[in-house]
Write a structure and sequence with these properties.
Order of helices and strands: HHHEEHHHEEHHHHHEEHHE
Radius of gyration: 19 Å
Largest sheet: 4 strands, antiparallel
Low-confidence stretches: 303-318
Helix content: 40-55%
Shape: globular
Oligomer: single chain
Number of strands: 7
Length: 318
């Protein structure tokens, strides 16, 4: 087994093929939409940029980061939805605006390109400063801010477990970048400490989204919950959300199975050292792999037999 191949599950050639399929969807300005003709948001866009980099599409990945720089607003946030270069939803979502830090840190770990880091650093800093400014008294981060008449307006002062867990990861990445650039940001470290405590000890104070699988595993995926507590958390709802080994389902969408969230659970399992379940789940979800490296996205109905058949019903729109 190599770093780029999961033995008997996924080859390096297949990783390259998937990255090429993402690059083929990239728009002229560098944006990577959810799917062709649909909207782009900065969180999923940065995820796609990381996938491009891992798959060897370095130029496409760096064009994606150029798009991120071009779309950041003066307050440090990014609009929630952009379609064909036009903003469709001006609202700013905190976990989306924090996530650039994760992408830039990932790029550094892969490429060790200090010039790239320094070019992206001002945007990372403005984004995380905006996010930290949205922290609530109990430690969670308000999930979004609406816009009206072209200006920031009402803050939606509820915190989400999944979104705040993602922000926790972003703050850790941001702190690492701050050390690398020799520009310490102690307020991020303080905010991250308060946020981590809230995610470990006070999940009851977050908005209840327990019917969605992300609320279950994201505290582990984002790094706030580790060790025995992480294993206990993943075990606690395994039978609720995992559909016969084929992937994650949401209670509110049963029996539809999500491919992207299944990948995230694979990473959470790997983070706590449960490689056996991680590899099994990754292998089982390969039935979602289509032609030319593409994977089904959104809600995908599980197959009725082995989970590896080539005939699938058309996924519904979420």
């Amino acid at each position: 087994m190599t770093a780029k191949t999961v033995e008997d599950v996924l080859t390096w050639a297949q990783v390259e093929e998937t990255a090429a399929s993402i690059a083929a969807m990239q728009e002229p300005d560098g944006a990577i939409p959810w799917t062709t003709g649909e909207h782009t948001d900065v969180w999923n866009h940065v995820e796609a940029a990381m996938a491009l980099l891992v798959g060897g599409e370095v130029e496409a990945a760096e064009r994606a980061y150029d798009w991120v720089l071009s779309m950041q607003r003066d307050d440090g946030s990014w609009p929630m939805k952009v379609v064909g270069g036009q903003v469709e939803d001006h609202s700013g979502e905190t976990n989306m605006s924090a996530y650039l830090a994760v992408g830039v840190w990932h790029h550094w770990l892969v490429r060790r390109d200090e010039e790239f880091v320094r070019r992206m650093w001002p945007a990372v800093r403005r984004g995380l400063d905006w996010v930290v400014g949205m922290q609530l008294p109990f430690g969670g981060i308000a999930w979004s801010q609406e816009w009206a008449d072209g200006r920031p307006a009402k803050v939606n002062a509820d915190a989400l477990v999944a979104g705040s867990s993602s922000i926790y990861q972003s703050l850790r990445a941001g702190a690492a970048l701050a050390e690398l650039t020799d520009e310490p940001q102690p307020e991020w470290e303080l905010a991250g400490g308060r946020l981590g405590h809230a995610l470990r000890e006070h999940r009851d104070l977050f908005l209840d989204k327990s019917e969605f699988s992300m609320d279950w595993y994201y505290p582990v995926l984002g790094g706030a919950v580790r060790g025995p507590a992480a294993r206990e958390l993943l075990d606690s709802r395994w039978d609720t959300f995992v559909e016969d080994g084929l992937g994650i389902r949401c209670v509110s969408h049963n029996p539809w199975v999500t491919g992207a969230e299944t990948c995230e659970l694979v990473m959470a399992l790997d983070a706590v050292g449960d490689r056996t379940r991680a590899i099994r789940l990754l292998a089982d979800m390969q039935h979602l792999r289509g032609e030319q490296g593409k994977y089904w996205t959104g809600y995908v109905f599980p197959t009725t037999s082995t989970g590896r058949t080539s005939t699938r019903p058309t996924p519904p729109r979420p």
